[in-house]
Amino acid sequence: MNTVAFVMAGEVEPFTAPDGAVITELAGRTTGLISHSVALIAHPAGMSTVEHHHTVADEVYYVVSGAGRVRVDDETRVVGRGDTIIIRPGQRHKLWADGREDLVLLVTCAPAYDVGEVVWDE
Fold it and tell me: Whole-prediction pTM value?
């Protein structure tokens, strides 16, 4: 049975991760999806994430606004608005919000994000 779900602006409560990133899950396990998830993540200027990798999920970052750096395995790139970063399972990755404003990403995971399949490398 197919079910249509709508997530309307203002209905999703953002939460702050331990590294300071503000995460708004737009669709994923909280909305009943298991095949993929979509989140808007705002990384405050000056912060960095903890290096990690996913054992199962493909992850895609699309830079909505801001600037920073992303390291995937041993390659680091400066990224900004309009850039897309594709991260495969097993690839270690870390992000720095180096710019003057928040680095805002639209992030997808397939299958849907599950903290149980994330390995923290730092």
Answer: 0.91
